[in-house]
Design goal:
The protein is mostly helical. The protein has two domains: about 1-140, no CATH class; about 150-270, no CATH class. It has helices at about 1-30, 30-35, 50-70, 75-80, 85-100, 110-115, 120-140, 150-155, 155-180, 185, 190-210, 220-240, 250-255, 255-275. Helix 1 (about 1-30) runs antiparallel to helix 3 (about 50-70). About 20% of the residues are buried. The mean pLDDT is about 85.
Length: about 280
């Protein structure tokens, strides 16, 4: 069970990483903004700046978990065999891309039965093929780390840092929906991304400090530190730049991710103390 859980988590991480990487690269190469407006495509695909599209990477976690469960069935018979990555990719490419049961873009059925432009089928295929190839390779060829002590020592801070990036985006979208602001406005602000990156780093170091210190006021210090980076700093920046997101609502909304981060660190702290006893 432990090995299966590790396998599913690894498959999920690989899927999310390759999905985001290939999505960014090929959306720039083939200008998906224009491609998704081509002919009937605009009635089939949501715009890249829509709330659903921006939340897409978050839902890949669920897709990755599903991949992990299904690939457990192929683990011994395909993945762990010689050239297992190539066999896995062939299975995914044939069943999941070219020979899908429904008329998906890039599939045989899609080309025959849909009215989508051929350009969409052609330009959409490289991303799917590249992503599934990378996915198959890394799933079937696990990287053996010589020293995993860093990951073990920093597991909670790393988890919190990743969650910070995800929640920063999610609660930003929620704020935009409440304020009735176009979500795409925030995607063009380079400084906003720098602030998000700074928040991710700050939460990592704050979590690391929390796990390694016995300071009697560490709970309140951690909460205040996270709240400043996730709520106060972005709010001040939005007001200084007269951003469409400038609102005191964000100060209330971002209490939620701060408390989630605190709960994760507090739980890890309690487990460590219990183990020490």
């Amino acid at each position: 069970m432990k090995e299966n859980t590790k396998f599913i988590l690894r498959v999920t991480c690989i899927h999310v990483a390759t999905y985001i990487l290939c999505g960014i690269i090929f959306s720039v190469l083939f200008n998906y903004n224009e491609l998704f407006q081509l002919g009937n495509t605009k009635y089939f695909m949501r715009p890249l700046d829509s709330a659903s599209s921006l939340l897409g990477p978050v839902f890949q976690i669920a897709r990755g978990i599903l991949f992990g469960f299904v690939l457990l069935l192929l683990k011994e018979s395909v993945i762990e065999t010689k050239r297992g990555w190539l066999k896995l990719w062939a299975i995914i490419a044939v069943i999941g891309i070219f020979n899908t049961p429904g008329p998906a873009p890039g599939s045989i059925e899609g080309i025959i039965y849909t009215q989508l432009p051929m350009e969409l089928h052609i330009k959409g295929a490289p991303e799917i093929l590249a992503q599934t190839l990378l996915f198959s390779y890394f799933v079937a060829t696990p990287v053996k780390l010589k020293d995993t002590r860093f990951i073990e020592r920093n597991k909670t801070p790393l988890i919190c840092a990743v969650l910070t990036g995800i929640m920063y985006s999610i609660f930003g979208i929620i704020t935009a929906l409440i304020l009735n602001v176009d979500v795409a406005v925030g995607t063009t602000d380079a400084v906003a991304f720098i602030i998000m990156f700074a928040a991710v780093l700050s939460v990592y170091f704050a979590s690391k400090w929390y796990q390694e210190t016995e300071h009697r006021r560490k709970h309140i210090i951690f909460i205040i530190s996270c709240y400043i980076m996730l709520a106060v700093v972005p709010t001040i920046y939005n007001y200084l730049t007269d951003s469409a997101f400038a609102s005191w609502i964000s100060l209330a909304i971002n209490i939620v991710p701060v408390m989630i981060l605190f709960a994760i660190n507090y739980s890890a702290d309690v487990r460590r103390d219990n183990a020490a006893k």
